[in-house]
Design brief:
Number of strands of chain A: 0
CATH class of the largest domain in chain A: Mainly Alpha
Distance between the termini of chain A: 57 Å
Keywords (chains A, B): DNA-binding, Transcription, Transcription regulation
Oligomer: homodimer
Shape of chain A: elongated
Structural class of chain A: mainly alpha
Pfam family, one (chains A, B): TetR_N
Order of helices and strands of chain A: HHHHHHHHH
CATH superfamily of the largest domain in chain A: Tetracycline Repressor, domain 2
Number of helices of chain A: 9
Largest sheet of chain A: none
Number of domains of chain A: 2
Protein name (chains A, B): TetR/AcrR family transcriptional regulator
InterPro entries (chains A, B): DNA-bd_HTH_TetR-type_CS (IPR023772), Homeodomain-like_sf (IPR009057), HTH-type_TetR-like_transc_reg (IPR050109), HTH_TetR (IPR001647)
Largest interface: A-B, 28 and 29 residues
Helix content of chain A: over 70%
Chain lengths: 185, 185
Amino acid sequence: MGRWEPDARGRMIKAALDLFAERGFEQTTAGDIAESAGVTERTFFRHFADKREVLFDGSATLERTACEAIRSAPAGLPPLDAALAGMAAGGDLLQERREHAVRRSLIVAATPALKERELLKLASMTEATTEALRERGAPQRDAALAAHSAVTVFSVAFVHWVSTPDAPGFAACVAETAAALRALM
Amino acid sequence: MGRWEPDARGRMIKAALDLFAERGFEQTTAGDIAESAGVTERTFFRHFADKREVLFDGSATLERTACEAIRSAPAGLPPLDAALAGMAAGGDLLQERREHAVRRSLIVAATPALKERELLKLASMTEATTEALRERGAPQRDAALAAHSAVTVFSVAFVHWVSTPDAPGFAACVAETAAALRALM
DNA sequence: CCTGACGATGACAGTGACTGACATCAACAA
DNA sequence: TTGTTGATGTCAGTCACTGTCATCGTCAGG
């Protein structure tokens, strides 16, 4: 055990979520979050590259989970289907902490600066997905298009999943949304 | 005529592009840009909401152009095709200033903070496109999916158009990319 | 038990992005 | 002639973020 209370990182994440929900993102300083978590502002910036990142701690895990699912999908599966399997796997992760995901999404939706960061994370997921599809043999452009489409489905499905109180599983939302997309083409 | 040299805004945009290309975005302060354009830093922030915005002056026009094209598309055209027509119209705008578009895209691609802002602009274009498609009678989810798909095509086509020296027209890139997307489904 | 490397944190000064408030001054209208 | 307007300058202030050095439990080696 260290000299200080353990899990400073977790405390900062929780404090940030609470404060952002109460006063809003802009009205909360990094110092406020740090103080509320019992650390200094400097420590906050040692854990998070910037003030926004404190709300995106799980995004790397989400991306990794999705990519692993894609890599372990049957070799014969077409790129888009493989990518969608990845999105469904990522969705399972959110499903395990639905309440947190919903609360967080409300804050993000209310703050342009956070929306912007979320888009960057989605773009990162798109790039990672593209790479995973390339490893399966898809040509660059097909991989990019399938990845973009899958992430689109993920986003649209997420909005539906969040706004539906008694939601079916996230995977079901993905399947439904994917079907609608195919119908449009 | 005012008390000062005219077109302060245009001078700042040009100065920013030059300085970002020379030293990079982070190594250039807002004060540097202002000084180089012969104004004060305060004036810079009166014209641009933040340092990034100076590189996104044309995005509102691009969005408006695309939406107008969608609204004036034949009523019977399916949502995706109408949206793609909008993207092609937007592409024509870039085509008129290809050199500027390419130079700018290099800077944006090299700077995560600018990439992030670009994603926000694309998201805005997606939302506007969704709304335009809804006005044509498309249900919400179909409109959102078609808009996302069209903007995806726009992005992928743009990368190809930029990286191809003797490019065919932007509209041709859009058509080609759209065909590839349809083939994936 | 002593000791030195290690790792997480605190303390503090500094830069730069951005904002609010007020002053200035050419152009233009009454 | 005078009052208004609009774009700008000036200046002080907050806050995001960084570099640097000091601190002090922990743990391995002696």
